Amino acid sequence: MPTLDQLKLGDRGCILAIQGEDALVQRLYEMGFLEGEQIEVLGFAPLGDPMEILLRDYRLSLRRSEAARIFVRYPVPTPARRPSEGDA
Amino acid sequence: MTSTHTATVALVGNPNVGKTTLFNALAGMRQRVGNYPGVTVDIKKGKLRHKDQTFEVIDLPGTYSLSPRSPDEMLAVEVILGRRNDEPRPDVVVALADAANLERNLYLLTQVLELGVPVVLALNMVDVARNQGLTIDPERLAKNLGVPVVPMQANKGVGIEPLKEAIARVLSNPQPSFGPTFPEAFEKEVGELAEAVGASTPRYLVRRALLDVGGHMEQLFSRGSDDGLGERLRGARQRLAQAGCTVPGVEARTRYGWIHQVTKDCVRKPALRHVPYTERIDRVLTHRVWGTLFFLALMFLVFQSIFSWAGPLMDVIRGGFGFLGDSITKVMTPGPLRSLLVDGVIGGVGGVLVFLPQILILFAFIAVLEDCGYMARAAFLMDRLMARCGLNGKAFIPLLSSVACAVPGIMAARVIENRRDRLATILVAPLMSCSARLPVYLLLIGAFLSPARGFSWWVPGVTLFGMYAIGLVVAPLVALLLKRSLLRGETPVFVLEMPLYKVPSLRQVAQRSLESGWMFMRRAGTLILASMIVVWALLYFPATNPATGKSFDLEIAALEEALTSPREEKEQLEKELDEMKEESKDDPRIAELEKKLNEVNAALEPMEKKRRDLEQQWKGQSALGRFGKALEPAVRPLGWDWRIGMAALASFPAREVMVGTLGIIFSQGKGDAGDEGFREGLGDTLRAVAWDDDPQRPLFSVPVALSVMVFFALCCQCVSTLAVIKRETQSWRWPIFTFVYMTVLAYLGAFVVYQIGSLLV
Ligand SMILES: Nc1nc2c(ncn2[C@@H]2O[C@H](COP(=O)(O)OP(=O)(O)OP(=O)(O)O)[C@@H](O)[C@H]2O)c(=O)[nH]1
Ligand SMILES: [Mg+2]
Asked: Can you tell me the mean pLDDT for B104-114?
């Protein structure tokens, strides 16, 4: 299963699962990384890390090592606007 | 509500949603706002008047959730729960949400709803949402959420009145609020756990204990003796995982699921996502190549403009102080009091205040950067480098803020969750070149590295940039060392939201730079003035010439008196001579004039020497002189004499003191010319100074100037910084540590620069 850090600039994916239960994972959940959500890779910092991501209409940056904890389905069919809820 | 009790209104919300902006609008305060997450780190309070009622408003630091991981994060939760003795429990919570990013912002609201306090939702940034093509129906949202919703635009004051009304309404008729319902299995575990810990722990905290793996509540529970609570928690989580409500995911799923239900019929999004201009700008500004180039160019622009824009204003200030010094010298008789006023107060404090324009420019730049949203991009660009040093990209914001002043910079480190990282950031923040170093750099660069000294136009800017670069390079290296030794630990998480760019508000920028300018003047009037007086006194007394029994001051003044007319004659002759030479080279009168000039010089020279000797003798036997000379061997390797060494030592309270002290040391005792430091500029005075033991050898050279600058770039001569480190770390150990390591670094840096510099020159 690919993880978020393997995606390239402009790629879109759909979150499948997040691994772990530590502070990072909890923070990711709180920020809205949820199973079923769509994400898009917007860019990378000069040394290829961290990466910038579009999630739920806002942008945030994540380290690749952190993104590696997020499993995604990729590629996804044409950009569907809203994820269907209750995928959990 | 009883009339005797002032109701308390707490503002909570995600970072950067505009809480402080709203707070300022409500309470008429001027707290700092900025366009990046984590501007407010302290609880701020103010009074709000509405009709005949008065409320107390508190502005809390922004947070994404109320799941405390550290004592700091626990603060907001405890305040809202009324579990802190020093803070009253809020009667209403105003939850702010960014309308353009509603779902994520409502997450925090769902947690607030569980705390059992009446809530009003302030739907801020409706302008941004509108621009992105979002439409929100506030009435329907209020109905779905079960709390009043007030659309607003805090920075324009839109919606303030309706918000006040809503607060008053909720206060007079508090309604219980309900958040999402958790799965039954979960509620059952919470119920059992709540029974085990007793009724004194609010239900919300029991939930937190279960949900936050390794969080603050779990730590509290497991610490408490051997009642097996830690075990119970683990057992409960295991059972929950089997029941399909895995911790921590269950919380996010429940809350976001509810949010989706609540918003689906009242929020309409455009079919195609609107690509905001911010993203287009960011394609350049966070680009690997262009972004980095832009960052460097921006930094250079800041430093170059500090030089080129401030000149005229500085001349005005300098002229003012020069005039003041002149006038006092004219009306007062020579003596300690005149010396104190002219040399100590005007020479010292004035010498520092001359740099006010630069400070204003620097702060204005930082304010623009903070307000437009660039800070978060800088953190993004620098994270990789910071991570190499075991730090967080977020640490870059405190470090960059420290360029203005280390005190707010150190406080800004509170946004860093991890304790060890925060400490590392605090300990290296004072290495960033702050505005207090600016006067030292500017004085020395202006005197020794300016175009007037034969350097190219870009040398001052680049040198200044170089001084700042020292901090920028050394701070991460020290952090790396700390993280490898004292503060070992893993590299922490970096989840940073990118705010939208916005045009910086002129008022905001003007206000911040004026405030800092005022602070700077206040410091000059208190701390710096006091240090100046001490330095002046130590350099003035004892003032009696042991050889003659008379006061040095008066002797020099008498000598100056006698010197006035021969000096004028000499000047006159030199001028005539120059004019004559210009007209024709072989005028017979030239030889005649030259002869006359030589005669005048011959008479003048011994007197001038006597004057110099007297001055040198006086300073040498003063309290500061004796002490300084005893210490001179320690500073010789840096290329300094005792006077520079003393000036550096005396600037322990604040770095700017250095400039004033140099002014005092090198101008005091010049009798009538006491204010010449001002007329000519302290820089010219410094260039004219020679070594005590060799009047032909100038004291300052480019390597010496650089060595002094590097020393100040690295040292920690600032009591305010040390005090704030003490406050933030709750221990004396860290300020002492910081002072010692920075002084050692500064000494080594100055040593290396001087030694290499003297080889090259
Ligand atoms: N467009 C727009 N900008 C706003 C609005 N309200 C506030 N701002 C801007 O948003 C930025 C953040 O405001 P702050 O008040 O510092 O935010 P805060 O919530 O206190 O942030 P922290 O202290 O970091 O938690 C500032 O640049 C404000 O000028 C609004 O309604 N519309
Ligand atoms: Mg704030």
From this structure: 93
The sign of the CA dihedral B275, B281, B286, B289 is: positive
Tell me the residue ranges of DSSP E strands in B83-232.
Answer: 92-98, 119-124, 135-136, 149-151
Dmax over CA atoms of chain B, in Å, equals 115
What is the identity of the amino acid at A1?
A: M
State the alpha helices, DSSP H only, in B541-587: 552-583
Q: Give the environment of ion ligand 2: residues with CB less than 5 A.
A: B 19-20, 39-40
Chain B residues 105-144 within an 8 A CB cutoff of chain A: 107, 132
Structure tokens at B618: 């006086």
Is the preceding peptide bond at B276 cis, omega within 30 degrees of 0? no
Show residues of chain B in contact with A32, CB under 8 Å: 103-104, 107, 252, 256
A63 in Cβ contact with B494 (< 8 Å): yes
* Tokens at B162, concatenated: 């309706």
Which residues in chain B are closer than 8 Å to A35, comparing Cβ atoms? 249, 253
The CATH architecture one would assign to domain B8-172 is 3-Layer(aba) Sandwich (3.40)
Taking an 8 Å cut-off on Cβ atoms, the answer to whether B249 and A29 are in contact is: yes
The total of other beta-carbon atoms located within 10 Å of residue B242's CB is 10
| Segment (H or E) for A61 | strand A58-62
Handedness of CA B159, B164, B169, B170 (dihedral sign): positive
Query: Does the beta-carbon distance from A60 to B497 stay under 8 Å?
Result: yes
Instruction: Check B103 against A48: CB less than 8 A apart.
Output: no
Cα–Cα distance list, B291 to A43, A47, B36, B281, B673 (Å): 12, 12, 18, 10, 52
Nearest by CB to residue B286, choosing from A22, A31, A52, is: A52
Most A CBs within 10 Å, among B218, B494, B500, to test the A interface: B494
pLDDT digits (tens, 9 = 90+) for B671-684: 444 444 444 577 88
Phi-psi region of B105 (alpha: psi -120 to 50; beta: other; left: phi over 0): alpha
Q: Which residues of chain A have pLDDT under 50?
A: 80-88
Q: Which residues of A touch B393 (CB under 8 A)?
A: 50, 61
Counted residue by residue, chain A has a size of 88
Distance of alpha carbon B660 from alpha carbon B651, whole angstroms: 9
Flag if B67 and A82 touch (Cβ within 8 Å): no
Predicted confidence (pLDDT) per residue in B362-388, tens digit: 788 888 888 888 888 888 888 887 778
Which domains, ranges and CATH numbers included, belong to chain A?
Answer: 4-77 (2.30.30.90)
Q: Does A59 touch chain B (CB under 8 A)?
A: yes
Contact A31 B287 (CB under 8 A): no
Cα B16 versus chain centre, distance: 19
Element (H or E) spanning A44, and its range? strand A38-44
What tokens appear for A43 in the block?
Answer: 């860019």
The answer to whether B32 touches B39, Cβ cutoff 8 Å, is yes
**ipTM reported for the complex, 2 dp:** 0.86
And the tokens for B677?
A: 């430091």
Q: How far is CA B676 from the centre of its chain?
A: 33
Which among B67, B213, B387 has the least Cβ separation from residue A21?
B213
Q: Quote the pLDDT of residue B107.
A: 94
Nearest CB partner across the interface for A30, out of B64, B100, B381 = B64
